[in-house]
Amino acid sequence: MYWLIGLMSFGIIGIIAAGFYYQAHPHRNTNGACWFRPAVRINLTLFVAAQAVLIVLGAREVMAAAEAAVGSSEISIGTGLAIIGIGIPTAFSTIAAGIAVGPIGAASLAVLAEKPEIFGRTLIYLGLAEGIAIYGLVMSILLLDKI
Q1: Domain of 119, in residue numbers
Q2: Which of 80, 84, 108, 117 is buried deepest, with most CB atoms within 10 A?
Q3: Reported pTM
């Protein structure tokens, strides 16, 4: 199973190396490198295939080891689904905060270039946008107390 992790790592490192290459040589994006798209496609396919095989083999291994978990404290399917449901507000609120902070941060930088004296206001706006993630975290903590 370690060879699959190696394949996944090799695929991701290949994609990252290609990205670094194009970051260092941006003028070659249009006509110089005809190898870029096939290389990224191969590395991405390698990563996704290795991850799929790892999931299948890992699930088979977990199903085979079910007898070892009989003596320990078990979590029922309902409890597991409840824990996943509790994590959903945090996930969605964090994604929403990221979506909100992006444009607000860009607009804040644009305004600060013209009027540096309103730096405090821009921080307040960014804090309000980031507060969305805090609300989701508080909601998850309150829901976790109900289990």
Answers
A1: 77-144
A2: 108
A3: 0.48
